[in-house]
Specification:
The chain is 0% helix and 54% strand. It is an all-beta fold and 123 residues long.
């Protein structure tokens, strides 16, 4: 079992920045995939960014490429999502998630979830 705790959400004006953190505890795995998803009201949960922990390989959905960066701190078992140039359409609840093995963009493939943190971008 893995426990994920998220933090860093908040209210920011368009063009601003936020950094989300996701700290993992409990059982560790050799090659997990860590991912950030988001869900806006009335919309399906969608992938934002992901990282294969062991290799550091990263993936981004097209809408955030060049603006968001996923990174890790191995010593702290923490993954971050740095969000720059935020837009109102980025407003959503952001979730940290994890699975064993290869990367998938489908949220239904992920087994471990944080509680979510609200990100609101005003215009």
């Amino acid at each position: 079992q893995v426990q994920l705790v998220e933090s860093g959400g908040g209210l920011v004006q368009a063009g601003g920045s936020l950094r989300l953190s996701c700290a993992a505890s409990g059982r560790t795995f050799s090659s997990p995939t860590m991912a950030w998803f988001r869900q806006a009201p009335g919309k399906e949960r969608e992938i934002v960014a992901a990282m294969i922990w062991s290799a550091g390989t990263t993936y981004y959905t097209d809408s955030v490429k060049g603006r968001f960066t996923i990174s890790r701190d191995n010593a702290k078992n923490t993954v971050y999502l740095q969000m720059n140039s935020l837009k109102p359409e980025d407003t959503a609840v952001y979730y940290c998630a994890a699975r064993l093995g290869y990367y998938y963009s489908d949220y239904r493939r992920y087994d471990y979830w944080g509680q979510g943190t609200q990100v609101t971008v005003s215009s």
